[in-house]
Amino acid sequence: MSVFEELRSVRSAKSQGKRDNKAAFFFLLPWLLGVVLITAGPMLASLWLSFTNYNLIQTPDFIGVQNYVRMFNDPRLLNSLRVTFEYVFVSVPIQLVVALAAALVLDKGMRALPFYRSVFYLPSLLGSSVAVAILWRQIFGQGGLVNQALGLVGLHNLPGWISDPQFALGTIILLNVWTFGAPMIIFLAGLRQIPDMYYEAASIDGAGRWKRFLRITLPMLSPIIFFNVILQLIGAFQSFTQAFIVSGGTGGPSDSTMFYTLYLYQQGFNQFDMGYASAMAWLLFIIIAIITAVTFVTSKYWVFYDN
Amino acid sequence: MSQQLSRRQFGALALTGIGTSILLAGCGTSATPDSGGASTAAAGDAFRKATVNLAWWTNPVRTKYTGEIVKDYTNAHSKITVNRAPGEWATYWTKLSTQVAGHTEPDVIQMDQAYIAEYGGRGALLDMSKVGSIDVGPLKSSLAAGTLDGKLYGIPAGNTVYAVLANKTLFTKAGVDLPDDKTWTWDDYIDLSAKLAKASHGAFTGTSWFGGDQDVQIWLKQHGEQLYTAKGKLGFSAKTVASWFAMVKKLFASGGGPTDDQYTNDIATSVQQELFGTNKSAMGWHWNTQLTALAAANGGDLVLLRPPSVSGSAKKNGLYFKPSMYWSVGSQTKYPAQAGGLIDYFLNNVSAAKLQLVDRGIPTNEKVIKAITPLLAKTDQRAVTYMQNVKSEISWVPPIPPKGTSTVAQVAQRHTEDVVFGRATPSAAASAFRAEVQSLLDSNS
Fold it and tell me: Can you tell me whether residue B54 is helix, strand or coil?
């Protein structure tokens, strides 16, 4: 509060205020330039391009909403949406449950806690990298680590997990779940915010461990859960690297790992159909916006704000 | 004055100003195929002062000898500077498309058959028939494969031809004789594969599988059809593709092919790591020029066989020469004559060819082939011999694949996966394949 008051009093001195605004503008400049040049400009350009037949080489011609109409008659696009939704709505809940579980365990307070925290967090830093995706190929491939390990316990004639359409998406979901560290850290911070006195009072009233979790931890943590859900949903819809590397850029086998973003990339850079790819990008934008909005609207029924 | 401008106005101005300039940068890409002063591309200008940008996808060997060839060339013609831009296959095309859009297209471009129509048809490549500095006389037989709508968008740097590679070492191990490749049919091929797999007791399978556009192409030709017509339309019926997928299904069911997931693994991996390269299959489908790489990978005694045919006649097996790559000139070039001069050196100069050997395919200039053959490794000599053996049987040049079809190999393989995993019947996969190729053509017409 005092900071705001201080600011207000400073601003009342007019000449100084002007100088401050200038300074603020100056300090904002890098960010502003970034937003305009790297985000807003290209977004506007892609909106325009989505109404054209731009092919990267020739001057784009305006073709109205043709690209948007085409999307609804494109079976591979609809399939890629199905794959993406499956990925998002399976991997995000599992990942968050694992993250919360890990956070609860770590919150108990143990020796070498910083070490465990780092170890669990590490995959988040690596998870969407090319190196790990290549590693994943080696682990789940035909003669990969998983099959060799299963071979040791007498299981043979196993499928190549990434080369069988039944399992390929599963391995990528697993890869995403493995990167539970980032939401875990946020959960940990959230758990620290819950005052111990609630638990003490509940214990005195005879509430068991499970009940305390359900009645205290979950409600108190719900704003954090909400935050993580939003963050992971948006991130998952935009995943690209894992599918691109694990499937060798094809989205295969049999389109089973054809993420929406991967199909978009193929349309743009393999088919040179930038107009269509731009339209696809806007559809994804709209889908993410709707799903985020729905999450926000429903949040008032399950998110509990303390104050 | 500028002080009078409120910050908000300034912000808005900046926003629209920068935004518009981005829009313009993004869209202002008018490629004009006939600019570039082709009329000045006379032979006499070939060695005039110029800087020529040369782009090619590469491997370590190719990077090295291409550098040597360029050095020899610039030593001989001191007014020419050549900027070399080698790249990886996967990123090469992304880079090239953005270069064309950004008006920094290279002058000399190593081009692939899958992309030549994409670029040529969109005005990004020069009609090389107007470039006088290339001696096309010794290359005549190969020019049709680089011509689209009467314009020469690329000259083949070399040719390859499709083949069934047989690993004689594994055949001997299994106690199975090599087939007579002049008369064998697809049924013979499937039976032989099953026999090999059985005799190997699980050590290796009969044949690996590729199932790309070239495989479909020869099957179609054997049935009197082709992937595309010369006018860039569909040239095949769903019925013929259905019979193709049915044959594939039969092969996989016979136990002589790869397992379904071995197949998906195989088509996504490098030549050295695939089944044939690791002695896990006795036969495999490859271009003849890949023989040396594969022999180095599996250490076997490899033999090139003609693909089987429906009628059991080598003359009707549908084989054709495929340009392994092309040399093209970017339409934005300022120096078409000098670009042509460098290309001529790559195609027709004997000392350049002696450095290059058959890495860019088997050359089409007879004089060059004669000069390099004694220098070749045994396996490369076998590839040359195979090509010369089938030359008299080859009767057709497939039209350049039309715009939009650069990904057709993956389309064919994806539908093959649907068939071998039992996710689609051969006839359903065939209809879907045909519809998809049609839509590739439609969306790019």
Answer: strand
